[in-house]
Amino acid sequence: MATVLLLRHGRTTANATGVLAGRTAGVALDRVGRDQADRAAARIAPIPLAALVTSPLERCRQTARAVLAQQQGSPEVRVERAITEADYGQWQGRKLADLAKEPLWRTVQANPSAVVFPGGESMQTMQSRAVAAVRRIDAEVEAAHGPSAVWVAVSHGDIVKSVLADALGMHLDLFQRIAVGPASVSVVRYGEHRPEVVATNTDSGDLSWLAAAPAPTGDAAVGGGAGHDEPGSARA
User: Fold this and answer.
1) Whole-structure pTM over 0.85, yes or no?
2) Which residues have a Cβ under 8 Å from the Cβ of 187 and sit 6 or more positions away?
3) How many CB atoms are closer than 10 A to CB 134?
4) What pLDDT does 227 receive?
5) How far is CA 74 from the centre of its chain?
6) CA atoms within 13 A on the CB side of 45
7) What is the rounded distance in angstroms from the CA atom of residue 224 to the CA atom of residue 93?
8) Cα–Cα distance for residue pair 172/224, rounded to 1 Å
9) What is residue 193's predicted lDDT score, i.e. its pLDDT?
10) Which secondary-structure segment (H or E) carries 63?
11) Which of its termini does the chain have fewer beta carbons within 10 Å around, N or C?
12) Using only C-alpha atoms, what is the Rg of the chain?
């Protein structure tokens, strides 16, 4: 089964000022965000990527360009609208501190499956389109490049959290329990029996083992296995 690295974009000017950017055009990485993107790219650099897929928004494109700049090969690059930011409607462009005073804010925290942003989309729709796109592209990558293929999806915090919630078998109402920081890398494999969530919200650490690991079988090792770098490992 192929491996997808879910990469959130680096910090933006909107993140730094507490504004919900949404799909606002021209929201770019700030200096911290550019450094974060470069560090994430360096972690991913040892892995020959089969594909690099990005949300169409500028902050994700910038992060994707940072990853591509440190790749030795030439992965397929594509833009995928289905992993773009949630449509926050009338909430877009407003201060988070002000939004926290809205009655809907409590629902976003406790019961997101019931949320429809005024003038925007529902959080259920957001999750459905993102999960469908990631699973579809993962299957395409594996069909084209084999079960050892690794690819990157560059997206947004709520999108990555919703994809991880699905992979973990969590109800959307629980997805706020998942943390996804700027330029963090989460690792998921979609196996024959179930998804395998290998890592979440990592912003440091070696990822090079993904380049050398044989294709996983998709079966869960009874007892937990020996890990990816130990003799007798299900991945080694």
Assistant:
1) yes
2) 3, 4, 5, 6, 197, 198, 199, 200, 202, 207, 210
3) 27
4) 65
5) 21
6) 12
7) 45
8) 27
9) 87
10) helix 58-69
11) C
12) 18
Residue 186 buriedness (CB in 10 A; 0-12 / 13-18 / 19+): buried
Whole-angstrom Cα distance, residue 112 to residue 94? 19
- At 236 the pLDDT is 29
Among the residues of 82-122, which ranges form H helices?
Answer: 96-99, 103-110
Phi, psi at residue 227, to the nearest 5°? 90, 170
Please give the single-letter amino acid code of residue 182.
Answer: P
**Would you tell me how many other CB atoms lie within 10 Å of the CB of residue 116?**
14
- Contacting residues for 129 by C-beta, under 8 A, at least 6 apart: 82
Q: How far apart (Å, rounded) are the C-alpha atoms in residues 230 and 174?
A: 34
218 — phi, psi (to 5°)?
A: 95, -10
| Residue range 27-79, pLDDT digits in tens | 999 999 999 999 999 999 999 999 999 999 999 999 999 999 999 989 999 99
pLDDT digit string, tens, across residues 17-29: 999 999 999 999 9
Which residues, 6 or more positions from 185, have their beta carbon under 8 angstroms from its beta carbon?
A: 5, 6, 7, 40, 43, 44, 199, 202, 203, 207
- Contact predicate 162/123, CB 8 Å: yes
Strand locations in 43-161, DSSP E? 51-54, 76-79, 150-155
- Distance of alpha carbon 103 from the chain centroid: 28
d(CA 202, CA 81): 25
